[in-house]
Design goal:
The structure holds two protein chains of two kinds. Chain A has six helices and ten strands. By secondary structure, chain A is α+β, with helices and mostly antiparallel strands. In chain A, the strands form four sheets. A four-stranded mixed sheet of chain A has the order 8-1-10-9, covered by helices on one side. By secondary structure, chain B is an alpha/beta fold. In chain B, the strands form seven sheets. Chain B has a seven-stranded mixed sheet with strand order 5-4-17-16-15-6-7. The chains are: A alpha+beta, B alpha/beta.
């Protein structure tokens, strides 16, 4: 497959390697000046069983940068938009804080930022990506749960993982086309 | 799309290519021969003992973000939550901003901000008075590890005190001593290449150690290694293990001895290895006869057939099987002997110095700065370590024995206490005793970056510059992937703070010891950099922050000429030196005391965001764990009428705390657990002041018999709903 000149950024997560260490969360806070008490990313922990037969799993999650993002569709001002490379963002100057997008997001990936008075969310650290760097959560992850890259680049590590491994996306029934791929 | 590729593109576009000093040091898998030019100022994290390499990006004079520096193979190109949160220590509005002298009673919280001159004059006067009255041995100098600890320690030594008290006896002294007594050195474990890993309690996925945590999660989750984990608590590590056993606390040694029993009985040892390199195997054969899997089942609660199977699988993995040593505080009074049993189990499968086994550490060579030497102290140590713990390190001392003897005033009075970068009130079991020890002091001086509980009770507080504000000596990190790292200044100090070297010099000048500190940090690191295995060492370090070996080397000690640094020159399964010192020459198991009816054993552990007491109050870490709670088994909680969120009173013979309960399935019914770092006394630690409870209040004084290492799991507590 020839390399497509248009990029389509996505993330593959190998949740089994997640040790719930919160490095991604703190790195995101530092990189993006996220206020205390609200988060652009999270780790969904599930604990189950009874002593001594117990289990726990940890799934990192953030904005899925969907192909067909419902948040963008409902935005009355066009503040929520999708870049050509697939990254979904909020143009702060145009956000009126109506929060429709927060309700429309099936992944609860958005929050209202009381400091900036606009809706806030993961940007895949587009400012870093545009400089040729990785998103902060990807770069910092101790157990290398995350692989970030261009779906259209057949030579990328992300592409190789999706070719060779089984995976799932969350809530496919929404038709949003989420772009966080969880390895099975 | 990996970072290295990105860096190359950026490097080619934006920066001149650097010259290659020594290509063999560059990271595994690096695509270009040339190292990338870092995108920030390379320096070295100080939030825990791992010392990961970081790149600090600064915007308009403010540190914006810390990123991992991929050039250090030991830190595995990552930065954990704690490392990321270091920025908040720098910009903490409550950090120590200028020297302070106590104005009211100790602990009353009345402080007079003073100039450095005033602080130095005051402390020097007090130290000189103590020396005049009690001799230099009347002063105690305690510290935890850090790159500038050397200057603090040297000040104590130059002052003439024998009482330099370092942190290992609160940490890993028992582990180090046990492996040293067996192999003459403390090895690392090659978890990247191991095929079978057994770990007991070391909770490596929450208590992060580089590169072990990363290598183990990679190895286990990529199905390259089988992982068996023993812990009374269902930790994150337990959740990732192939098998988890909630072993009865204090019985690890029975499990290990039974494994040895099975491996010997079934003739699964590495005979050739044992014949050539070890001493005392024949005595081990006799020794482990009674330690059958059935015996171990009765002790540990783990079925004999499982122990037998695990022993077989372990031996079958041979030199790629490791019983991981762990690295944390001692747990029980037999801790040294339990670690010896581990070392012996590893030995009999022949994993010494093999890929996937135990590997003796390599070092990166570095130079030493030559300073004026001082006379040895005239007095012996106050902890009388030579008498009490003849095998322990007399250089580091034994913390709990020191406290016992200082409280008794024997063999002589100690009346002044200088403390660097350490919070004994939280780091040492039995806070009440430590407070009593502080009350008995004529003078207490503390060097720290924040108003710790211990600083709160001091007479003078010297604010140290944060690690991002100072340049430290070059540190060699031994290991399978050894590195030499530089911590260099990223921003100028934002408050009236000084590095430890300058503090030592300020005091030394007033104590007539200036000649011993007649140098600058630049001269010091220049001397160290001279012998680094790269050209233009100092320049290289400033540009890259690290010089490291990226390829492991195995088998260097497996040659006929090699003599192990033990009495016999061999690996000592049987230790004559132990027998001479009055200890068991082979590990003998004794059943540990169990909590009496109605009581619980208190156990400790860590979380990835909170390893050290100082970290719980950093806002980004604090919002992950705003308060600690007491884990108690669900059935026990139901029996006691306790529900999650209820306030409970926890009592030991050392003290009482009140803390919220967490009724959970994830702990044995005979144990309770709480995190470290909460329930602080210092009001300047706003987020954790009087929030939750401090484990140190409850922990009783107990130590490992051989190393003197504080034994942290020997406390039984009683829990009642308030």
């Amino acid at each position: 497959m020839a390399k497509n000149p248009v990029k389509r950024y996505a993330m593959v997560l190998d949740s089994r390697k997640c040790i719930d260490c919160k490095a991604c969360i703190v790195a995101c806070k530092a990189e993006n000046d996220v206020p205390l008490g609200v988060f652009r990313n999270r780790i969904n922990a599930e604990h189950g069983g009874a002593y001594p037969r117990l289990r726990a799993s940890f799934d990192p999650e953030q904005c899925h940068h969907c192909d067909n993002p419902s948040c963008v569709r409902v935005c009355p001002t066009g503040a929520s938009f999708q870049r050509e490379d697939g990254i979904v963002q909020v143009r702060e100057a145009d956000c009126i804080g109506c929060k429709y997008c927060m309700i429309a997001c099936p992944f609860d990936a958005r929050f209202f930022n009381e400091e900036t008075k606009v809706v806030d969310k993961c940007t895949f650290c587009s400012h870093r990506v545009d400089r040729g760097e990785l998103p902060a959560c990807v770069e910092t992850c101790p157990s290398k749960v995350r692989t970030f890259g261009d779906l259209n680049d057949s030579g990328s590590a992300l592409h190789a993982l999706l070719e060779s491994r089984r995976y799932r996306v969350l809530k496919p029934q929404t038709g949003n086309g989420p772009q966080l791929y969880y390895l099975l | 799309m990996d970072r290295r590729l990105f860096l190359q593109i950026v490097g080619a576009g934006g920066f001149a290519a650097t010259s290659i000093a020594c290509p063999k040091f560059f990271g595994k898998g690096r695509r270009a021969a040339e190292p990338p030019v870092p995108l920030g100022i390379p320096t070295t994290c100080e939030l825990c003992p791992n010392k990961c390499s970081v790149l600090a990006s600064v915007r308009k004079g403010r540190i914006h973000k810390l990123n991992p520096n991929p050039e250090n193979p030991k830190s595995r190109n990552m930065l954990c939550a704690r490392g990321n949160a270091a920025i908040q220590q720098v910009y903490d509005p409550d950090r120590l901003k200028q020297p302070l002298i106590r104005a009211g009673a100790r602990g009353e919280g009345k402080w007079k901000p003073v100039s450095w001159d005033e602080a130095f004059d005051f402390a020097a006067k007090k130290l000189a008075e103590t020396k005049a009255k009690h001799g230099p041995e009347g002063t105690l100098w305690s510290s935890t590890e850090g790159f500038q600890e050397v200057f603090f320690k040297n000040l104590g030594l130059a002052f003439g005190s024998p009482n330099i008290l370092r942190h290992p006896s609160l940490c890993l002294a028992s582990v180090n001593l046990a492996y040293s007594m067996t192999f003459g050195t403390v090895p690392s474990f090659d978890l990247q290449n191991a095929k079978y890993v057994i770990m007991a309690g070391a909770n490596r996925f929450e208590s992060i150690i580089t590169p072990d945590t990363m290598d183990l999660i990679g190895g286990v989750m990529e199905r390259k290694a089988k992982f068996v984990y023993l812990d009374p608590r269902f930790t994150v590590t337990a959740s990732k293990a192939d098998e988890w056993y909630p072993i009865k606390p204090g019985t690890d040694m029975a499990f290990i001895l039974a494994m040895i029993h099975v491996i010997i009985r079934e003739d699964r040892c590495d005979k050739a290895f044992l014949d050539q390199w070890t001493l005392g195997f024949d005595r081990l054969v006799e020794h482990v006869l009674p330690y059958t899997p059935e015996f171990a089942e009765a002790e540990t609660g783990i079925p004999a057939r499982e122990i037998t199977r695990i022993a077989r699988e372990f031996a079958d993995a041979g030199h790629r099987a490791v019983f991981y040593a762990g690295r944390r505080s001692s747990w029980y009074q037999n801790d040294f002997q339990m670690r010896r049993a581990q070392a012996i189990l590893n030995t009999i499968v022949g994993n010494w110095d093999r890929e996937g086994g135990m590997v003796p550490n390599r070092k990166v060579a570095k130079g030493e700065f030559m300073f004026l030497p001082w006379d040895d102290p005239k007095a012996g140590r106050v902890d009388e370590v030579e008498k009490n713990f003849p095998l322990a390190s007399a250089k580091d001392g034994v913390y709990l024995q020191t406290r016992e003897n200082v409280l008794k005033g024997a063999p002589y009075p100690v009346k002044a206490w200088m403390i660097y970068k350490q919070d004994p009130l939280n780091a040492v079991p039995d806070q009440g005793k430590t407070l009593k020890m502080m009350e008995g002091m004529d003078f207490i001086g503390v060097v720290d970056i924040a108003m710790s509980d211990t600083a709160w009770y001091a007479d003078v507080v010297f604010p140290e510059s944060h690690y991002l504000e100072r340049t430290d000596p070059i540190e060699v990190m031994p290991g399978i992937w050894p590195a030499a790292v530089l911590r260099q200044q990223v921003i100028k100090p934002i408050h009236d703070t000084l590095p430890m070297l300058d503090i030592a010099q300020g005091l030394a000048r007033r104590l007539g010891l200036a000649d011993y500190f007649d140098y600058t940090i630049d001269q010091w690191i220049e001397a160290e950099a001279r012998e680094l295995p790269v050209e233009n060492g100092l320049e290289y370090m400033k540009k890259h922050g690290v010089v490291a070996f990226s390829e492991p080397k195995y088998g260097t000690t497996r040659n006929a000429a090699y003599r192990f640094v033990t009495k016999s020159g061999k690996i000592e399964i049987f230790s004559e030196r132990l027998a001479e010192a009055g200890h068991d020459p082979l590990p003998v198991y004794a059943s540990p005391a169990q909590p009496p009816s109605g009581k619980f054993r208190m156990i400790l552990g860590r979380k990835a965001t909170i390893t050290h007491a100082a970290l719980a109050g950093l806002p980004w870490l604090h919002e992950q764990v705003p308060e600690n709670d007491l884990w108690i088994n669900q059935d026990q909680a139901t029996r006691l009428g306790i529900r999650t969120g209820d306030l409970v009173q926890v009592t030991s013979t050392a003290g009482t705390v009140r803390i919220k309960a967490r009724a959970t399935e994830e702990i044995r019914p005979d144990c309770v657990f709480m995190l470290h770092g909460f329930g602080k006394r210092s009001p300047w630690l706003k987020l954790v002041h009087n929030v939750g409870a401090a484990d140190a209040v409850l922990l009783e004084t107990a130590w490992d018999k051989v190393s003197g290492n504080a034994a942290m799991h020997e406390t039984f507590v009683n829990v009642v709903k308030v």
